[in-house]
Amino acid sequence: MKNLTLDEFKKIHEDWKSTGLSIRDYCGNTGFEESKFYYWRKKLTESLLPQSKGFVPVQMNRQNGKILTSSLKFEWFYNWFIIRKLQLCVT
CA of 31: how far to CAs of 14, 26, 36, 37, 44, in Å? Predict the structure, then answer.
């Protein structure tokens, strides 16, 4: 098999999702190496994550003598973003 590009694997990934098969069954049916599928799926996932690094601005409020701040934490879990609200209280 020739070397793939990420765009080519995106098409393979979409085809796999449309079949409803497990990765093992899909690879067995198509002849695609299972280990390469997982390798490319990781590359695809990484390409979808935000590329920015560094600090994120946080707004802080004072309430009842305490400093409150809340922010959202984004986590990537397979094909889902998990959004969690964090709250920090400093007295």
Answer: 16, 8, 11, 11, 20
CA angle in degrees (0–180, nearest 5) for 13-19-24: 70
pLDDT tens for residues 39-52? 999 998 888 776 66
Give pLDDT tens digits for 51-73.
666 655 656 566 666 655 555 56
The 80-90 sheet, strands edge to edge: 60-63, 66-77, 80-90
In a 3-state reduction of DSSP, which class is residue 44?
A: helix
What's the angle, vertex CA 4, arms to CA 76 and CA 2, rounded to 5? 150
> Which residues does residue 77 pair with via DSSP β-bridges, in sequence order?
80
Q: Where are the alpha helices (DSSP H) in 20-89?
A: 23-30, 34-48
pTM over 0.90: no
